[in-house]
C-alpha cells in the first residue's frame, strides 16, 4: 500500500481489498491504533487507524447492516478487544473473531445498545 506523505490520511476502502491492505500495512511495520464503528443509514462505517512514525492512515470501510466483516486478529492479535466491542455494542457481524467473547465483554442491560441509529 502506498501511503501519502500527509501526516493523517483517511482512505475509503472496498471490502474485497480490505484484508490485503491490512496485510500490507502489517508487513510495512504499521501499528494498529484503533478501530471505530459508527452507525450509518442501513449499515456501519468502520474506521481502522494505523500509525508509523509520525504518520497515520485510516482505512474506512462501509458495510451493510448484516454484511460480515473479516476479523483482523490473525494479522493484528491486539484487535480482538475492539472487534468484540463493535460486535457487542453495535451488532457488526465479525467473521472468524478469536477470541470471541460471544456478547459477554460488557455487563449491559440490552443487546447491541448502539445498533439503532439515533
Reconstruct the topology from this structure.
Layout: E1 8-13, H1 15-27, E2 31-40, E3 43-52, E4 55-64, E5 69-70, H2 80-90, E6 94-95
Parallel strand pairs: 1-4, 5-6
Antiparallel strand pairs: 2-3, 3-4
Task: List the keywords.
single chain; 118 residues; alpha/beta; Beta Polymerase, domain 2; four-stranded mixed β-sheet; two-stranded parallel ribbon; 2 helices; 20% helix
What does this structure look like?
This protein has 118 residues and is an alpha/beta fold. Helix content is 20%, strand content 34%. It has a 4-stranded mixed sheet with strand order 1-4-3-2. The model has no long low-confidence stretch (mean pLDDT 87).
Shape label: globular
CATH topology: Beta Polymerase, domain 2
Our count of helices gives 2
Uncertain stretches? none
H-E string:
EHEEEEHE
Strand content: 25-35%
Question: C-alpha Rg, in Å?
Answer: 14 Å
| Topology, number of strands | 6
Level-1 CATH class name: Alpha Beta
CATH-level-4 superfamily name: NADH:ubiquinone oxidoreductase Nqo5 subunit
Largest sheet: 4 strands, mixed
In angstroms, what separates the terminal alpha carbons? Answer: 35 Å
Please identify the oligomeric state.
Answer: single chain
Task: Specify the CATH architecture.
Answer: 2-Layer Sandwich
Can you list the strand order of the major beta sheet? Answer: 1-4-3-2
Provide a concise account of the structure shown.
This protein has 118 residues and is α/β, with parallel strands linked by helices. The protein has one domain (8-95): NADH:ubiquinone oxidoreductase Nqo5 subunit (Beta Polymerase, domain 2).
Amino acid at each position: 500500500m502506498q501511503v501519502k506523505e500527509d501526516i493523517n490520511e483517511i482512505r475509503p476502502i472496498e471490502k474485497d481489498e480490505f484484508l490485503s491492505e491490512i496485510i500490507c500495512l502489517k508487513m510495512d511495520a504499521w501499528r494498529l491504533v484503533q478501530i471505530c464503528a459508527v452507525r450509518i443509514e442501513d449499515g456501519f462505517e468502520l474506521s481502522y487507524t494505523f500509525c508509523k512514525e509520525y504518520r497515520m492512515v485510516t482505512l474506512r470501510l462501509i458495510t451493510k447492516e448484516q454484511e460480515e466483516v473479516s476479523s483482523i486478529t490473525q494479522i493484528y492479535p491486539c484487535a480482538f478487544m475492539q472487534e468484540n466491542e463493535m460486535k457487542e455494542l453495535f451488532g457488526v457481524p465479525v467473521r472468524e473473531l478469536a477470541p470471541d467473547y460471544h456478547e459477554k465483554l460488557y455487563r449491559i442491560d440490552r443487546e447491541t445498545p448502539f445498533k439503532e441509529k439515533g
